[in-house]
Every structure is written in C-alpha cells, then in structure tokens.
Amino acid sequence: MQAWRVHENGEPGEVMRLEEVDRPVPGPGQVLLRVRAANINFPDALLCRGQYQIRPPLPFTPGVEICGETEDGRRVIANPALPYGGLAEYVVADEAALLPAPEALDDAEAAALHIGYQTGVFGLHRRAHLQEGETLLVHAAAGGVGSAAVQLGKAAGARVIGVVGGPEKAAVARELGCDLVIDRRTDDIVAAVKEATGGRGADVIFDPVGGDAYAKSAKCVAFEGRIVIVGFASGSVPAPALNHALVKNYSIVGLHWGLYAQKDPASIARCHEQLTKLAADGAIKPLISERVPLKDAAAAVQRVADGTTTGRVVVLPDGAAR
Question: Phi, psi at residue 145, to the nearest 5°?
C-alpha cells in the first residue's frame, strides 16, 4: 500500500515521503481499516516536527483522525494507532474505540468530526459550562477547531464573536454564523469586544492559539468569565498573571481532550451520540475547505502547519471527492 512516512523530524513538506509499504498488522484488540478519508490536524504538523506530546518511533505515518471502513463494510470514525497514521491507504485502530460515522455526513465531513467537535463540546460545556445567552469569543474562528466551536456555540444559544486573521477568513467566520467578526490584523480586539458587550466582556473565551491571543483574552474576559486553553497554534505558550485572574474574578481552565480516553472513555461515546444528533439536525457540519488526493498530502499538512488554511483539509486516498 501507499503511505506517507517521516524518517526524520522537520517541516512536513520537507520530511514526509510517499512510500510503498506493507499493510499494518492488527495487534490484540485492534482492527484493520481501509482509509476512506483522513482529516489533517495541527498535531500532525507537530508530530512531523517532533514537538507533539506523543513521539512515535521513526519512521512513522502522520494522521490522527480518519473515516474508515471495516472488513465487513461498516463506515467508522477512528484515531489510528501510531506509528501507523491515517495518511495511508490502510491503518490499524483500537476496536473498542471505533465510533459509527454519522449518516448525515459524507466521508470527508465524518473524518473531520471527531477531534475538533469533541474538543469543542468538552471545552465549552464540560470545562467552561457555557450557558444560553452568554457571549462566546472564539480565536481562530475560521480554523478547524475554531469553526467547530463557533457552530457548537451557536447551537447552545450563545452569542458568538469570532476572531480571525484577514478578510478571507472573516468571510468564512460570517458564513459559519458568527454574530460579530473581528480581524486581528486591522481591529483592536479588546476594544471591539468591550464595545459589543457594553463593557462587560466575553463570558467564555475559546483559545487554541495562545501567545498574544491569550494576552488579549485576559483583557476582555467578563466578571466570572472562563478562558479555555485548548492549544498553542501560535507557537507561544503564555505565562498567565494569576494576580490578574484573582483581581478580575475569572477562571483559566485547561483542556487536554485526549486525556478523557484514559480517564473517562464513556464520556467520549456520549459526546459522539450528541454530535451525531446535532449533525442529523443540521446544527453542525464540518467546514471542508479542501479535499486532496493522497499524493498531495505533504503539501496539505504544510499549509495547515503554516496557518494558511480555513476549516478542514481532508485527504482522500483514492482521490474521490467524497
């Protein structure tokens, strides 16, 4: 089969190689899946760079999220077992963790549902307890995880403010349903949020960016607001001033969604049932900006790494527009 492999760490476009390799062999409790679609996540870029919290042995295949097909023809969502990642024609995955792909979503959309939307649900509801009528601020609102948070916030009845970089991404955020869009390149984020909220600030802030985005968040979070730390796509890990959190009465909460697979796996299955219903009702639908063939996967991972994409970029191993 064909698979992209990384033999040394570095930028995805430089270190990923498309090779002919043997199909992976399932271990105890695992199954072999044919990859129907593989969603590219920012962690795939970090894996290539050797900067992710998990460091599979070299060589490995990136790709942490797929829509696949079992040997008996079931369409499922899975997180491939590294080092045999999803940017390949076949993967192995833990059988107990397989989830049914929602009928309302095509292969590419199903491949992009799991990590981003589960992160959104756990971050907004389990960690931040977002309430109907509250104001939600989403950084990188046109990105993969951010676009999911926007849709989930709207589904929960929140007023959603999206922060983006550039007019193209601003247009995407408006199409997603943001009530207000702020372009961080031209607008004053703090002033715009305070003006939009009558000086109160945002009740919940969803931050997958870190760096300057976090610094701005701390200046426009509401009394008893919650800042959800999802990731550091900017490459800069902020050092919060805890005296500031004390004086302004806001909470800083972390979200490592992958930890729930170890600590509370049943919660992931419950969340998937909720997401499946939201998809069936049309309340959520992953934003797929590009569907690319397997041969173009390295360039696609590099674009995600560079932050130039909107929504999700999905790889289709047979090149079909599914």
Answer: -70, -40
d(CA 196, CA 182): 11
Q: Of the candidates 294, 296, 298, which has an alpha carbon nearest to the alpha carbon of residue 319?
A: 294
Tokens 């399932």 locate to 26
For 52-120, the DSSP string reads SS--PPSSBB----EEEE-TT--EEEE---TTB-SSBSEEEEEGGG-EEPPTTS-HHHHHTTHHHHHHH
* Residue 97 CA from chain centroid, whole number: 18
Are 214 and 240 a contacting pair, CB within 8 Å?
yes
Residue with tokens 């550039």: 166
Residues ≥6 apart with Cβ < 8 Å to 111? 36, 37, 38, 39, 65, 66, 67, 77, 314
∠ CA 220-222-226 to the nearest 5 degrees? Answer: 100
Question: What's the chain's Rg over C-alpha atoms?
Answer: 19
Tokens of 275: 């997401």
Question: Of 46, 95, 41, whose CA–CA distance to 63 is shortest?
Answer: 41
According to DSSP H, which parts of the chain are helical?
A: 12-15, 42-49, 107-111, 114-121, 144-155, 167-176, 189-196, 212-220, 242-248, 260-263, 265-280, 297-306
Reading the chain (322 residues) residue by residue, the pLDDT tens digits are 999 999 999 999 999 999 999 999 999 999 999 999 999 999 999 999 999 888 999 999 999 999 999 999 999 999 999 999 999 999 999 999 999 999 999 999 999 999 999 999 999 999 999 999 999 999 999 999 999 999 999 999 999 999 999 999 999 999 999 999 999 999 999 999 999 999 999 999 999 999 999 999 999 999 999 999 999 988 889 999 999 999 999 999 999 999 999 999 999 999 999 999 999 999 999 999 999 999 999 999 999 999 899 999 999 998 655 5
Taking the C-alpha atoms of residue 283 and residue 2, their distance in angstroms, rounded to an integer, is 36
DSSP assignment string, 195-209: HHTTT--EEEEEESS
Residue 74 phi/psi, 5-degree rounding, is -80, 140
